[in-house]
Amino acid sequence: MADLSAPFQLSRPTIREYVTLLSRLFLLEELPPWHSNRLSRLIKTPKLHLGDTGVACALLGLNAETLTSDRTLLGQLLESFVFQELRRQASWHEEPVAFYHFRDKDGVEVDMVLEGDGQRLAGIEVKASATVTAADFKGLRKLKEAVAERFAAGVVLYDGESTVTFGDRLFAVPIRSLWESEA
Question: Which residues contact 94 (CB under 8 A, 6 or more apart)?
Fold first, then answer.
């Protein structure tokens, strides 16, 4: 809340009230941090995701050309878009799926952590890139190490064509796989 209040010169309680209002209107969603008592070096601040990236683009006056030229902004909007899509797809499952994010004090993070039945965890990283390297799995490897046998899989969703293995239970998967089925 402090990061949001400074540029607007508003108090933290006022910003909190606005965030609460936007959340109740389904325009903003807080993604809580995943943490364990065993891991004391984690950041326990929620992330905020927009409820509709199309509305966000319209309000900001963004189009395909501006998003292509600003990869950082594209990455942020793509992460929110994927988060909303995964939440929608998770609602179809009989078993509940809880969503979190993971970040430690060294800045190592995982965009989304999904916790299913039996406390099994999967990590999801979103990259607005057509290529993936081993470095893109840094956060997923840290999560895997932290949760050991509870780790089900780690996935980097990217704008590429192929599903590629990057080690034990670590995969690079095209983002389009969220909507397309393999023939």
Answer: none
